[in-house]
Amino acid sequence: MQPYTADGLKDEITRRLRVDEGLSTHEASPKDIYYALAAIVHGEIMPAWKKTQQKHKEKKAKQVYYLSMEFLIGSLIKSNLLNCGMLGQTTEALKEMGFYPEEVFGQEQDAALGNGGLGRLAACFLDSLSSLDYPGHGSGIRYRYGLFEQRIIHGNQVELPDYWLKDPYPWENRKEEEAILIHFRGDVHMFKKNDGSLEFKYENTDKVMAVPYDIPVVGYQNSTVNTLRLWSAEPYFPLEGDATQDEDFYHDLEHQHSIEQITGFLYPDDSSPEGKELRLKQQYFLVSSSVQNIIRQFKDNYQLPLSRLPEKVVIQINDTHPSLGIPEMMRVLMDGENLGWDAAWKVTTKVFAYTNHTTLSEALETWPVGMMESLLPRIYMIIHEINERFCQDIWFNREEMRDQIPRMAVIADGQVHMARLAIIGSFSVNGVARIHTEILKKQEMRDFYVLSPGKFNNKTNGITHRRWLLQANPRLADLITEVIGPNWIRRPKQLISLMKYTRDRPLLEKFSAAKQANKQALAAFIHQRTGIAVDPNSIFDVQIKRLHEYKRQLLNIFHVIHLYNELKDNPQLDMIPRTFIFGAKAAPSYHLAKEIIKLINTVASIVNYDKDVKDKLKVIFLENYNVSLAEKIIPAADISEQISTASKEASGTGNMKMMMNGALTLGTMDGANIEIHDLVGDENMFIFGLTAEQVMDYYRHGGYSATEIYNTDDRVKRILDQLKLGEFGSQEIEFKDIYYNILSHNDPYFVLKDFEPYMETHEIVERTYRDSFSWLQKSVTNIAYSGKFSSDHTIQQYATGIWNLKQLKE
Ligand code: 4GP
């Protein structure tokens, strides 16, 4: 890629505006500028993209395909500019042209094609694959509507559709000529061939076209551009004169609409049977298009027999959602390519690898047999056969495990168990943080671990330091480069050299100044969004993540209520001003989570306007939390709240992002917090609360009483009574459901149990913050050790430990 100068860019933007839109720069809006800029960047990317594809073909290198129902890529303009080496010049050029760069970049709507951690991880992994020159691609769904847009109205979450494709999306290339035909339903016929083997043919299937849209995944200044291929469902129009097709049917508008629905929404509401079937359709749509595409590319690129597929292809499935890829691969190999069962199974089980992202039971997918059988008859037959053979194998070869068969069978209790299918059909099963993998091995997947211990491995998550530090926090990134030079950008572990400077006062002051400037910027943003003035000298205490009971936003807001109660009792209370910042979306059908959002907003509406509180306490709920908002908040965080009930958060990745930006973690010994703790120790983070062992012990043996705490801790009683009676502040809003959930269900996430240690730890936080030098040392220590959590490191581990993939340097 030829680097542009700022002047060159100005000329090119001006030229494009004139040629494409007939506009002068004076007439152009920020959106016009954005599109001109995106076209220039796309033009820069195209040749490198083509070259990367050629290189992969020529070198006949092994490829990884990352299959995921979610890719939470956010906005691409800045990261593409950064990775193309054009961000600095562009910023300069835009300013000189009289535009605010952030306003221009802000014209791009986030591609919110994911819900949270799992989807964002997939996006970070793609960035690292390209930046490290690995041949690795994403395969996902091009939802026309991404994750809903959240509005807060009278404190309540209201969901609006996220029509992110309203304006043209400049990064995608439609590849109609590479469309793939997908079959649903229909009749399966079995024939015996001359050699005695069986042949399967399908008739009367519902046919759907999967049309790929390719998005370039640009590596960091290395000319590698991989592909994120997103599939869109479109009606299939048979060729004219094909007498077997009923024209009227296929032109029926309702039918067309139902096909387009397949890729209509991310996560359709699955509370109704129809909705659930639509999700199953989405899953099969993704895997069928991906697997057929992979086989086609393999044939085109390698000219090898399919038995050698595992030498050239590995498919990583992101949670169980794409695990139908396993029977789909069997189907393609057997029915399409004439391999026998044993040969096909040998290939399949050497190609698939599975990552688990959660042990929450409600997330362990199962599908009713009836639904699977009618929607995907051939796939169901194959799953049935996989199950039979698996159960028989245990029965005959592992007699000591016979009793476990009902717990391990893929088909049991009238359901198809997707995690079991994923484990059986994969050569690798990994968790996403050390403790998570241990829990999988010892508990959730214990039987499978006993059966095949060698499959199980850990790959602790990571985040791309390019987006989350270099791009999101240029003040800090520039300062780091000033201190230790630029090598950390390609080798993030070199951030550790910052440890040499933790006693250098003048230098630490510079880190402090960068944080302060970021806090000022966020304060300005908050003011513009909410009209509330927050004090940039207060502690910015941040909890941003999906709203879930286990993540315990409730514990956080209980602490805020407690502080508020204290301030009401004693307005002279000596405390460092605090700003509590929340960002969270709740699943539309998750009532309690929405109540918690309402509670946070209610507390905010009281606290922020109470004269007694003055400026000591502010509560900010920023609506519509998404990737772009995270990029604004994270650089300004002082405290990173990672307070899940121990054992519940598989890893967390927000914890890594905030650590990398110099926030101190206030957290439980859960997920990757434990690995942060391994690195920085008790002195540089604030750990509190029950351990995973203790939590699991309570679940197993009981012995915890929430009511007892309610009856003995006056602070807790006061808060809960305020919720129940609606006596909170001057408002008459009751939060009885929260109250009863805690007391009648014995506080399933141990909010009350961890309340006391959480309060104490907050006091320690405050004392620590008063010593600004020591705080800065801790902050820089966190940044220094955060390189280990770059997704570059994680991807290296996947590449060597699971994928057996080589970097393709020039
Ligand atoms: C999330 C986990 O909750 C989080 O701990 C982890 O860091 C992230 O995956 C990436 O591995 N799970 C999901 C999900 O987002 O949908 O199950």
From TrEMBL:
Q: Which UniProt keywords apply?
A: Carbohydrate metabolism, Glycosyltransferase, Pyridoxal phosphate, Transferase
Specify the enzyme's EC class, one word: transferase
Reaction equation(s) it catalyzes:
[(1->4)-alpha-D-glucosyl](n) + phosphate = [(1->4)-alpha-D-glucosyl](n-1) + alpha-D-glucose 1-phosphate
| Cofactor(s), by name | pyridoxal 5'-phosphate
- What top-level branch of life does the organism fall under? Bacteria
Instruction: Report if keyword Hydrolase is assigned.
Output: no
Family affiliation: Belongs to the glycogen phosphorylase family.
Q: What is this protein called?
A: Alpha-1,4 glucan phosphorylase
